[in-house]
Every structure is written in C-alpha cells, then in structure tokens.
Amino acid sequence: MLYAILSTFLVAAIAPAVHRVTGRASGWVLGILPAALFLYFLSFLPAVSSGESIVLSWPWLPGLDIHLSFLVDGLSLLFALLISGIGFFIVTYAGRYLEGHRDLGRFYVIILAFMGSMLGLVLADNLIAMFVFWELTSITSYLLIGYNHENADARKYALQGLIVTVGGGLALLAGIVMLAMAGGSYELSEILANGDVVREHSLYLPLLILILIGAFTKSAQVPFHFWLPRAMAAPTPVSAYLHSATMVKAGVYLLARLNPSLGGTEIWFTTLALFGALTMFTGVFLAFRSTGVKQVLAYSTVMALGTLTMLIGIGTETALMAAMAFLLAHSLYKGALFMVAGILDHEAGAKDFLQTGGLRTALPVTAAFAILAALSLGGVIPLFGFVAKELMLESVLEAPGLVGILTLLAVLTAILGVAVAAIVGIRPWFGSRVETPKTPHHEAPPAMLAGPVVLASLGLIFGLGPGLADEGLVNAAAASVQGAPVDAYLALWHGVNWPLAISAFSLIAGGLLYWRWEQARRALAWVDQAAEYGPEKGYFKMMDGLVWISEWQTRVLQNGYLRYYVIVIVAMTAGLVGVTAQLFDVSVSAVHFERLQIHEMAIIAILVASMLFAVLTRSRLGAVAALGSLGFTVALVYVLYSAADVGITQVLVETLTVILLVLVLFRLPGFLSLSSTALRLRDAGIALVAGGMITLLMLSTLDARLFDSISQYFIEESEPSGYGRNIVNVVLVDFRALDTLGEIFVLALAAIGVYAMIRFRAEDRR
Amino acid sequence: MEVVMAFVVGGMYAAAIYMMLRRSIVKLVIGLVLLSNAANLLIFTLAGMKSGAPPLIPPGMSMPDGAAADPLAQAVVLTAIVIGFGVLAFAVVLIHRAYEVVKADDMDQMKDTDR
Amino acid sequence: MSMHSLILRTAGHFLLPLLLLFSVFLLLRGHDEPGGGFIGGLVAAAAIVLYLFSMDIRSARKVLRVDPRDLLGAGMVLAVVSALPAAFLGQAFFTAQWWEFTVPVFGEIKLSTVLIFDIGVYLVVIGSVLTIMLNLAEAED
C-alpha cells in the first residue's frame, strides 16, 4: 500500500524523462501506472465487499503517535478505484489533448503527484497523514489549475482555489487536532469506533464547525462554491479529473468518513442537509443559466456536491446508499462529459454551447456517448444516474426533518437538472449545424475517446444491473459511512411511487425549460447583477483588505528605521513580560546583597567603568579599547567561577574581536553626534527600562527553580558513558553534538557570507 | 555575587540598547558587542555562579569531587561566544560594505538610499 | 599589512609552530581537561593571525598552505561524517562510537566518532576565523 502510493510520486518524478523517451505514446505508457494501481486496488475488492476493513500501518513519527497507516474499507476502496480508474483515462487522454504542448512533461509530474496525494488522502487512517495528503491535493491542484501559467486569469483563479481550500485546510487542521483530543487517538479506525465519546465531548461543537469549514471549502459548498467554476481555467483533462472523482470530492469523502463518529446529531443533520440542499439548488440553477461548456459542467458538479452533502447529512440507510450510488454515478458521467467537453474544444474549437449544434454527423462516437452520459446526468431510466436519483428523492421524502424545504429544493433541482442534461446532451449534437470556430475533420483519437466510451457505458451497465455495483462496492461503502452494515439495496425499478412520479414530472418540466432555454436565460439576466454581490465579492474584498493591511504594516512597522524596530521590540517584550509577571504573580523576593570580596568588587568596578566608557566616549579607539577591557574582564568572571573552557574561549575571541574591529571600524568615519539631548534622554529612558526588566527577570529567576536541571545527568554520565572527564567538552561533542553541529554551521555560514561580501561585489557584474 | 551580577547584566543590556538606538552605525556595532556579552553573562549567572567547582572529573574517578558548576550553561555560553564572533564579523563587514556603497554612516541617510 | 617590528616578526616566527602544536594538544586533550575543538581552533587561528600581523598576507597564506575555505568545508564534512556510523548500526543519529586499540610504544589508544567530530569543529573554527580575517586583511591592502 505504502509502495502503491509512493510509486505515483516516484513515477511523477521520472515522468518528464519518460515523456521525452516515448514521445507521442507517453500518455499510454504513463497510463500503465494508474491502470496497475486500479488492478491492485481491485484485488482488495472480494475482502472488502464481504464487509472487512483492512488496516496497514508503518511507524512514521512514533514519538508523536503519528503513523503512516492506511485503512481499506468500502468507502476508501470506492474512492481509490475511481481515482486510479479515471486517472488512467485522464493520463492517456491528456497525452493526446495536450500533445505537443511545451509543458506536457510538467503536466504529467503534477497530475501523477496529485493522484498520489488523492489516493493517500482517501486511504490514510492516521488523521495527520490524511491532513498532509489533503494539503498536498490543494497544492498540486493549484499547480494544475494554473497550468497555463502565462495566462493571468489562470494564475488568479488558481490562487483563488488555493486560498479558499488551504484556508479551509487550516480550520480542518484545528478541527482534526480537537477530534483527536476528543476521540483519544489519531487513528481513524479507533476514532470511528468511539463515536459516542466524540459526540458527547465538550469539544464536539467547535471541532464540528472547524471540520465542516474544511470540508465545505474543499467541496465548494455554498458560500464557498465560487472557486470551483473559476477553476475551469485549468486544461480540460484537469477539470475532468478534479471535478469528477477527486479534489472536490475530498470534502465529501471527509464528511462520509467521519459520519460514524460525528454524524447522527441534530446539528450535523441540519447543517449538512440545509447547506447541501442550498448548494445543490444554487449549482443547478447557475448551471442552467451558463452557456460555457465547462461552466455548465462545473456548476452541475456543484449541484452534485451539494446533493452528496445533503444525503450524508440526512444519514438514513437509504440516504447513505443513495450518496454512494450518486457518487459513483456522478464520477462516471461527469468524467465522461468533461472529456467530451475537451473533445469539443480540441476538434471543433467550441468552448460555449451557443457555438455548437448539429455536430453528431461530424463526431458520431463522441455524440453517442455524450448523450448516454447526459442521460445519466438527467437521471433517465435505465441509466445508473436514474437509480441514484430515485434513491435520492426517496431519502429526501423520508428525511427525519425539514422534509418540506428539502423536497422543494430537490424537485426544483431535478427539473433544472433535466434541463441541464438536455443542454449537454442535445444542444451540441442535434439541430441545424452551427459553424464552429474549427471545423472537425475527423472523430477524436482513440486515446481521447476511451474515457467517455468506457465511463458512459459503465453508467449504462450499472443502470441495467444495479446489483453489480451494489454487491460489488456501493453497499460496503455505505456500510463504512454508516459504521454498521446496511440493509438497503439498489434497484432499477422500485415500482410506481412518489420518486418515480417526481422523476417523470421533472422530465417533462425540464424538457419544457430546455425548449425555452433562450428565453429563460434572458429572463434570468438579473442574476448577473446579483452575483456581483455574491460571496466571491467577499473573497476579493478580503484579498484587497489583506493587501491593504500588509501595506499599512509595512509603512508603519517596517519603516526602515532600525531604532524604531528596536523600540518596538523592547516595548513589546517589556509589556509582555510585565503582563506575564502580573498574571503569574511573579515577585522578586527580598534582594539580599551578600558581602562581596575585594576581587569581586574590582571586577564589577571594571565592568561598569568600561561599559560606561564605551557608551560615553567620543573616540572610536577608546570605545574599542573599552570593549576589549570589558571582554577580558568577562573572561575573568568565567575563569573565577569555574568555567575554564569558557574563559579561555572568551579571551581568544576577545582578542580576535578587537583585531576585527580595528581592521574594519577605522575605515569608517568617526562617531557622529546626530541626536538632540532630548532624544538621547528618551533613548536612555527606553534602554534603562529594558535593562531594568532584565535585572528584575534575573532576580525573580534566581531563587525560583521549576525543573531540575538536566545538567545533573550530564555530570553523572560524562565519565561512565561519555568516556570524558571534561564535562563541558563531553556535552559539546557527545551529548549535545547535534546542537554543536548546528552551531558550527552558523559559524561557517557567517564566514562564507563575509567572504562573499568582500569578494563578490555588485559592481563586478555591471 | 549573582544578585550584583543581575544589576550589572541589566546595565549592560541598557547600554547595548542605548547604543543600538543611536543613528551612527559604528555605535550600532558597539551595541552588538555589548549585547552578546550581556546575553552570555545572563545565562552564566542564572546557572549559578560557583567558584572553585569546575565541571571536571579528576582522573580515576567517575564523578566530580564535590559540587560542580553547571556544564550545560558553560557549553551553551562557549558556543555562543564563538558564534557571536562570526555574527559580529558578518555584521561589521556588512556595515562596511554598506558604507562603501552608499557613503553614509548615518542610518537615516542609509535608509533613504533604497528609495 | 606588515608592521615592521623586529620583535613582533621574530615572535611570530617562533611562536607559530609552538602555538599550532599547542592547539593540537588542546584539541586532543579536550575530552579530559580544559580544551577541545573550539578552543584549539581559536588558538590555531589566533596563531595564524599573529603571524599575519608580523609578516604579511602572502606569507600567512603560504604558511597555511591550503585555502581556509577548504578547511571549513573539510571540517563540516568530518563533523557530519562522524554522525553517520551510528545510523548504520541502527542507533540514533550521532550516537558516539568508541574503538580501542593497543598500539606498541603508545599503549592503549581510544578512537571515537566523538574525536572525529571534535576535529571537525576544530577545522571549522580555524576555517571560519581565517576566512574572515585573511579576506578582511586582503581587502585592506
């Protein structure tokens, strides 16, 4: 399992080389990997469909209780199969779609890495590992959406997607940590078994909200739905992959995965069902009034995501079964349709439905399977989409609450969904031939057709034989969402009942709407104006605000005056120390001066005198001499108080420091007198406050010792296990050798920096 | 001695910060030297100042004879001294280079050159 | 930047080998008595700097034979290498390894990764200080 996921990253690393060697065939060659992964995951199927779940674990950071563990059950296997299976078609498809593109090699790297992250995300059993993969999918999808990086829009919307999903990721991280606190483990398999504990934990509400923010942003739920259609700036294979089976479903996956431990509460039901239903309706409504091929598909993806969220929220056996069936159906038809959109673009140059029409003669195969997929999207009997839609309607009607509003939204969605399906399935292919920007000369190449053909056909096969999908995986997946075996089943024909009636009604109403599409769109033009004030505006406002804040803080805090930085730092530190001292009731116990011996007095007198001289003198040589005297006196302190090594070091370094200062400082001009007396007094005041704070801190620490020093261990173990009698040296080179390594690194860096500054001058480059 | 040292170290911090608040760049360097000495002494003082108790083990024994001064603080201070030298050298050369380029040692003038 | 002082020059001449020898002595005994890589390295570097002031840059570089940057790099490599044997023995990074030999004449000799590490520190300190000092002195000319 570990190797399966690692292999995607390894192959990603060598993909550009493979691409160079194999040229035109690179899509097929690299497609071997997802195909092999698909077969590998398929080998888990018998065990999983009989209800087993398999946990595989490798230690990662055992000290922090983080393991690289994987959980294979119905849900994760369903996702893994979709990711690798559709991934195969995407990779081969992209090999032809982006053929000759300058950056195709880079594309393979990112898409394979994305696939690996996605697999890791759905298979991870450890929450932290899952989060790492979650963020990886955000980052790789950012690179994928911004693939055409010379296009300003692509960059902008890639960033938008990244900020929304990563912002949600931040909330998710906090939520996960709380979940682990509540559930007592970072392992999903253990948390899921502890549902009651989590639900009754005092952190349940905050952690639920945080996790929902993470899931909703990723899965483009209202009000975060705006980033998803914008992400259509990506090349079509990316859209097909991200929006059919992967990226955007990650949020849904998370909700489904955590359902056994978080679900079943009132708030879970209300939030998910309402937000899901709203998203579902918003998505299909916006899809209906869009004309861009990919826009329509993207908004219908938003609809699907809303539907899934709603179903998981409803949480009855039927609903969960419907969710899993809908997930599978959607992945199949949406993958196919996006690839069809790519064919339309590739062969006919059409990016908008208004530019298309009558293409069925030019692209017969594409047309046939596009229609098949569109029928599934519309939920027409006997396709798998119908099976899923019937179940969806049934579970809405049987929902434990909010039946009225959910049903209303579901019916409206069903009607508009049929209209959208008609836009996709009829508009480009039938009617009079519309002049497309590019005249298609031939059918799309096999590599591009394979995906739509296979995926759309599967929609038909599962539709005719729903038991195949049911017993195979959907039931097991629903069982892992429920956390218990599921007693529902999939069927094509449920008899004449309400869902069937709604379906039939929506077919007719949707057909009518499609017939009047032009008028309906015009009537809905006002939505454009309204959309100006939508959540996307909030996003842009927020980004502007961020820029404004950073400009402001640069102007005010990063003003370029070192002394103001110092003042801010000193004031902050003094303030924080003051507050902390108040809060924790730190006090300085009576200061008692012990009687100083004569040599101690002498040392302190010299220290103070040289310090004052260094500050007050107007001669540079005097200041350097004073520093020297101060340094050697400090060395004397070290030697007198049992630190021979430190003393010797201080003497040597002090010598070198004086030489250094003499070498450099005297090439600079003499001291300037730049400040007024008032400024000096102010600075002296600040300095004295800081110094006083240090003194107080030291005094309060002197007789408070909260922990035993680790030094005792070093003293005891130095000889027996370090074989050295100079304990300081043993600490440096044995006990704390890693620290010392870091320190000599710093020293080496400083030296190299000095060398660079002296040797490489900017003028040389002119 | 520790109590007196607390005042001395506080004074050194004050002196260092005062020097760093000056506009003359050479004074900044002097402030840096003072500051690193002050920080070293702070750690050293807080670890407890014992005279005549070096953290050395006499030959043939496995523990120091009697109490020993804190070896960890000494090790920390020792490396800090050496690193302090490296960082000081870096700062001094940086300042020197900056002076060569902008011909100003008033930091306010230096600041204005990158506008 | 020679300071034409006979005393300084003579002292630099005679003191250099003594100081270098002393620095190696400090390095090797550092595990048991005051000394060690940091102090040894500083003594050696100070010795070369003293020589630099008594003679000139060119003779200082000549007496050093290698570029101080090479010393720096070699020191870093030694320090990192000393951490590796433990990893191959399945112990935590930087776990010290000791080997004891009995060599005729010298008696028992203890070798360890700790010593290698300390030699690395020694070289890094010499290399850093001299890279700084020699280049500064050169820039001065």
Please provide a brief summary of the model.
The complex is a heterotrimer of chains A (766), B (115) and C (141). Chain B is mainly alpha-helical and 115 residues long.
Give the topology.
The complex is a heterotrimer of chains A (766), B (115) and C (141).
Chain A: H1 2-22, H2 26-42, H3 45-49, E1 54-61, E2 66-72, H4 74-97, H5 104-123, H6 127-145, H7 152-183, H8 188-192, H9 195-200, H10 204-218, H11 227-230, H12 236-244, H13 249-262, H14 266-288, H15 293-314, H16 317-348, H17 364-378, H18 384-397, H19 403-425, H20 446-464, H21 466-482, H22 498-515, H23 517-523, H24 526-532, H25 535-556, H26 562-583, H27 598-616, H28 620-640, H29 644-665, H30 677-702, H31 711-722, H32 727-735, H33 737-759, H34 762-765
Antiparallel strand pairs in A: 1-2
Helix pairs in contact in A: 1-2, 1-5, 2-4, 4-5, 4-12, 4-16, 4-20, 4-21, 5-6, 6-7, 7-10, 10-13, 12-16, 13-15, 14-15, 14-19, 15-16, 15-19, 16-17, 16-18, 16-20, 16-21, 17-19, 17-20, 18-20, 18-22, 19-22, 20-21, 26-30, 27-28, 28-29, 31-32, 32-33
Chain B: H1 2-20, H2 25-46, H3 71-102, H4 107-112
Helix pairs in contact in B: 1-2, 2-3
Chain C: H1 6-29, H2 37-54, H3 57-64, H4 68-81, H5 84-88, E1 98-103, E2 107-112, H6 113-140
Antiparallel strand pairs in C: 1-2
Kindly describe this structure:
- The complex is a heterotrimer of chains A (766), B (115) and C (141).
- Chain A is mainly alpha-helical.
- Chain A has 34 helices and two strands.
- Among the domains of chain A are: 263-524, no CATH class; 526-558; 562-709, NADH-ubiquinone/plastoquinone oxidoreductase chain 6, subunit NuoJ (Four Helix Bundle (Hemerythrin (Met), subunit A), Up-down Bundle); 710-766, no CATH class.
- In chain A, strands 1-2 form a two-stranded antiparallel ribbon.
- In chain A, a hairpin with a 4-residue loop joins β1 and β2 (66-72).
- Chain B has four helices and no strands.
- Chain B has one domain: Helix Hairpins.
- Chain C has one domain (6-140).
- Chain C has six helices and two strands; from the N terminus they run αααααββα.
- At the A-B interface, α26, α27, α28, α29 and α30 of A face α1, α2, α3 and α4 of B.
